Amino acid sequence: MKHIPHTTAAGRDPRLPHTPDTLVVFTDLNCSFAHIAVHRLHTTRHRLGLEGRIHFDLRAFPLELFNEEVNARPGVDSEISVLGALEPDAGWRLWQGPDWTYPVTTLPALEAVEAAKAQGWQASEQLDLALRRAFWAQGRCISMRHVILDTARATGVVDVEALADALDTGRARRAVIEQYRAACDGRVRCSPHVFLYDGTESANPGVSARWVNGDFGVGSPVIDEDRPAVYEELLTHAAKLSA
Question: Domain-by-domain residue ranges, the chain?
Fold first, then answer.
């Protein structure tokens, strides 16, 4: 974990949480490293008894905007066999549908996660987690409006009518783009990147990886280090900040 100044000349750093009881997590929904991170955040928070006390502010790190292209299926598929072994309970499977049903964008789903925050942290957290499982474990096209709403309905905690209205009016769209802009110029290094209220931050927490025989979409990932204990360190520190 590293530490960044929590204020700038213009005021508080926009990457940081607004309150001490919250972790900001910049992610994309179709990033396998983020799927591991979010799974570990939820399971570790539950194990530590911090549910209801520490919250996750899931913010958009849209890879398609950074890379100006679709997050390529060959690269994603190559990660599953490696990263899936680190956290099999997160839920994984190779895409089983035709190529033309593969998600071309995650922006509507990221917008839905942001819109759900109007209903409280639990609604947003559970929708984010459910959308990840819908994509990674169930092979659903989370680019589609009806899939997003079906997934929201299955959580049992999201007001689907309110979410549909937010999507149809685009109320959360500006926030998603502002999160993307706040992450530009290397200020957020990757998906996932976690920030705490006091400036503590960790990019791809606990995991160090490299690619062999080509970059993403051509070669394969190799995990040089995996230290899940960092999640307990982050959550315990957040609990101290909010005490």
Answer: 2-242
